[in-house]
Every structure is written in C-alpha cells, then in structure tokens.
Amino acid sequence: MPNYLTLLDVIAIHERVMRAGGYQPRSLLRPELLESALYRPQHAAYYEDADCIRQAALLAIAISEAQAFEDGNKTTAFACLDLFLRENGYLLHRAQRAVADVLITVAIDREGREHATTTLEALLRENSRPKEE
C-alpha cells in the first residue's frame, strides 16, 4: 500500500519550500480543497487500480489546481510529487523543468486537467526510476 501525504505533511512541505526559496510561508486559504486534492491519488488507486506513477501525477495536478495556499502552490505541488515518489520507491532523475511547466499550465488552464495529467504521467514514467535499495 502506498504511503500517502497528509494535510499536515503538505503544510510542512509548503513551509520548507517557501523558506528554501527565500520567501515566507503563505496562508492556507482553502484547506478543504487541499484535503480533497490529497484524496485524489487514493481514489484513483481504489477505483482505477492506478499505480504510484499515475497517483503521483494526480497528486501534483490536484495540489497545483487547488490553489489552496495564498502563493507557492506549484512549488508545493512539485515538492509533494517528489516526496510521494521517494516515499513510494521512485526517484525523479530528470525533467524537473518539464514537470514544473506542466504544473504551471494546469494552474492557468483548468480545462486542460486531463491533458496535463496525461502529459505529467508520461513525463514521470519516462524520467522516474525505482530507488536502488
């Protein structure tokens, strides 16, 4: 069973990435949207038998799209995607900029969610590898 991120995990990740970028963490404006985003991978695992790569794509898109924080949503989404992959046995070893570009696109164009998810999933499949034990 995959390791899933909690609301408190994502808040801590947000605080860490904002400070690392030289910014103050921003307010969580819509906790209910963030919480809903965190359930999207679990829903896909149960109803679609989605693997960890698909779940990671869904998680990142959902967090980016939710715009739950006052600022820093895409950066937080990327960090959550990376941690989710690591916690579930994968490393994103290239294409970080391309992944970030997809997250930027979904924040701007909410109509393109399915396309963004498919694009991100393909990028992750091509650029992730299992962690060596």
What helical percentage do the residues reach?
Answer: 55-70%
CATH fold-level label? Four Helix Bundle (Hemerythrin (Met), subunit A)
Low-confidence parts: none
Estimate the strand proportion. under 5%
Assign an overall shape: globular
The number of helical segments is 6
Name of the CATH class: Mainly Alpha
Q: Can you say what the CATH homologous superfamily is? A: Fic/DOC protein, Fido domain
The radius of gyration computed from the alpha-carbon positions, rounded to a whole number of angstroms, is: 14 Å
User: How many domains, in number, for the residues?
Assistant: 1
Question: Average pLDDT value?
Answer: 91
CATH-scheme architecture: Up-down Bundle
Order of neighbouring strands in the sheet with most strands: 1-2
Q: Quote the distance from N terminus to C terminus.
A: 18 Å
Q: What is the count of β-strands?
A: 2
Structural classification: mainly alpha
Describe the main β-sheet briefly.
2 strands, antiparallel
Could you give the order of the helices and strands?
A: HHHHEHHE
Can you give a write-up of this model?
By secondary structure, this protein is mainly alpha-helical. It has one domain (29-130): Fic/DOC protein, Fido domain (Four Helix Bundle (Hemerythrin (Met), subunit A), Up-down Bundle), CATH 1.20.120. The chain has 6 helices and 2 strands. It has helices at residues 7-20, 31-48, 52-66, 73-87, 96-108, 113-127; strands at 90-92, 128-130. The radius of gyration is 14 Å and the shape is globular.
Short structural summary:
This protein is mainly α. The protein has a single domain (29-130), classed as Fic/DOC protein, Fido domain (Four Helix Bundle (Hemerythrin (Met), subunit A)). The chain is built from 6 helices and 2 strands; from the N terminus they run ααααβααβ.
